[in-house]
Amino acid sequence: MNSLSDNQVSIYEEPVQEKIRKFIKLESLLNKINYFKGKENKTENYISVLALTELYEILSRGDIKSELIREIENQYIYFKKIKEAPEAKADENKLNSVLEKQSMLLQLLHGLESNYLDYLEHDILFKTILKNSFTQLQPSSVDFWLSRDILIRETQIDLWLEPLQFIKRSIDFILEVIRKSGRFEDKMAEKGFFIERHNTQRNILLIRVTLTSDLYYYPQISVGKQRLTIMFMTKDDKNNLVPYQEDVTFILSTCSL
After folding, report:
1. Edge-to-edge strands of the sheet including 248-256?
2. What is the per-residue DSSP string for 94-125?
3. Distance (Å, whole) CA 5 – CA 235
4. What is the pLDDT of residue 243?
5. What is the per-residue pLDDT for 88?
6. What is d(CA 67, CA 19) in angstroms, rounded to the nearest whole number?
7. What is the rounded distance in angstroms from the CA atom of residue 206 to the CA atom of residue 17?
8. 84: part of which helix (H) or strand (E)?
9. How far apart are CA 27 and CA 168, in angstroms?
10. What is the DSSP letter of 181?
11. How far apart are CA 253 and CA 207, in angstroms?
């Protein structure tokens, strides 16, 4: 399975730590905003705005700046230790590149004001959309805006999004480092069930399961303190989710720093 291309596989991720779950959620929202913001159809374009309001709600309830700084600092310490090891000499250029990117992101994050969301809080159109995002009917002001040319709508979304690009840059880097930390291992789930003990000394952050995309089952992943359990599930003709009873080959990647 390791020879499969990206368009032939489905990757299922299970965050082990809550901070990684939050980062992946923010990554998903940012990807949705960027994908739909240029759509001509106003219904599709509105999905981008709704994703932006959800992003705002998450950011306004917590201190994402401090969380990103803390995580990047942890990764910086990790790679600094690796670089100091004698056997790391061959990878010195790669390690220097990672450390340099981490330093640049930390400089960017430390330079941000704590009130970086104020511009959205004072934007009447955005606040109107936010307030009515889950109502059945939008106010006429929102309908009017959605009827404007796509270039006007896309430009406005870009203006709302631009001050938040530090989040995308930081999260993209953090998650790339974590995802690349895992080794790809071929595994077998007998009769759809897999269990494996893991090293409790490892700081496991993320579990990734890779399957060929044409299969009719998915992994239900559970991570305990001492073991990883994966039960492959499928659905019957009544849409009940039931255990898959055949052997399953898959690729497991345990990501840890």
Report:
1. 9-15, 204-212, 248-256, 184-189
2. HHHHHHHHHHHHHHHHHTS-TTTTHHHHT-HH
3. 26
4. 97
5. 75
6. 8
7. 8
8. helix 64-84
9. 7
10. T
11. 6
Contact 27, 175 (CB under 8 A): yes
Give dist(CA 195, CA 190) in Å, integer: 10
CA 9/CA 13 separation, integer angstroms:
13
Cα–Cα separations (whole angstroms), residue 234 to 212, 217, 219: 15, 5, 9
167: its two tokens: 């989040």
**Side-chain-side CA neighbours of residue 230 (13 Å):** 29
Confirm whether pTM is higher than 0.85.
yes
At 100 the pLDDT is 96
In this structure, what DSSP letter does residue 69 have? H
Mean pLDDT in consecutive groups of 10 residues from the start of the chain, 257 residues? 62 96 98 96 95 96 95 95 82 90 96 94 95 82 94 97 96 97 96 93 93 90 94 95 96 95
pLDDT at 11: 94
User: What local confidence, expressed as pLDDT, does residue 200 receive?
Assistant: 80
Which of 80, 79, 62, 77 is closest to 21 using CA atoms? Answer: 62
211: its two tokens: 């399957």
The residue type at 182: G
Distance CA 47, CA 52 (A): 9
User: Which pair of structure tokens corresponds to residue 134?
Assistant: 């889950």
Let me know how long the chain is.
257
Number of helices and strands (H, E) in the chain?
9, 8
Tokens 């044409």 correspond to: 214
Largest Cα span, the chain = 66
How many CB atoms are located within 10 Å of the residue 245 CB? 11
Tell me the one-letter amino acid at 69.
Answer: I
